[in-house]
Amino acid sequence: MALILNGKEVADTLKQKITQEVSEMVANGHRAPHLVAILVGNDGGSQTYVAAKEKACHEVGFSGSVIRYESTLTEEELLEKIAEINQNPEIDGLIVQLPLPKHINETKITQAILPEKDVDGFHDVNMGQLAKGNDGIVSATPLGITMILAHYGIETSGKHAVIIGRSNIVGRPISILLSNPGKTGNATVTVCHSRTENLSFYTKQADIIVAAIGKPGFVTGDMVKEGAVVIDVGTTRVDDASKKAGWRLCGDVDFESVEKVASAITPVPGGVGPMTITALLNNTLKARKAQL
Known about the structure:
With 292 residues, this protein is of the alpha/beta class. It has ten helices and eleven strands. It has helices at residues 7-27, 44-59, 75-86, 106-112, 124-131, 140-151, 171-179, 199-203, 255-258, 272-289, and strands at residues 3-4, 34-40, 63-69, 93-96, 160-164, 188-192, 208-211, 229-232, 236-239, 247-250, 264-265. A six-stranded parallel sheet has the order 1-11-8-7-5-6. Strand 9 and strand 10 (247-250) form a beta hairpin.
């Protein structure tokens, strides 16, 4: 039976450490970190996620603010608000919740945030720092994955990691993190995607699989070699009449079949999701400490 990599437990442990650091910071006369989230529109998933971020901020002693706009907000108005926050020394981190309405250019918005306040790690400067192996702000979900690996002492050095998905939010940055030098690095990494032929050929060679493609139950037990570590990043809502909400979260991995062959696996929910928020808190604390 595979070891369940419990992201919620890891997140709780790390949040205790963050809380302690914030307490010491305030005791020494410094301001607590302040994270601002901007939410445009009424997407249910985005609202839930932003609320969870705000709650997590308060749990660790941060100031957490959410600025909500209707979906009719113009791109120019959003850029003006970002510029205002960029100039505010009392705000350490800024995230603009994605997706945005179609009339707003997401790339233009993410690049407008100052790199030092870009705690999502999406800015080209932060991506460049990651690619060069420098100490910058790392995209939250990939950082959260490495935190799980470190917590459970999962060896990555010399291992073959296969990443399924090449997005700039997860696939590309986690491929760089796992191949860079460091405690959760030094792996040999293969990046697979929608154009990869004979995907199972690669996944069956993998010591570590990171599935980040947004296709529920895509990775099955017959695609995984015995003893592999499987990280499931997928969080797709699928209809489920048995649930009060009428839906349930489903990962990219068919948990039931993969659990039988893997040595360790993250569940959905309760795996990578809680770690993404914890990594965001970590990045905000890092941004605040850079000003001290």
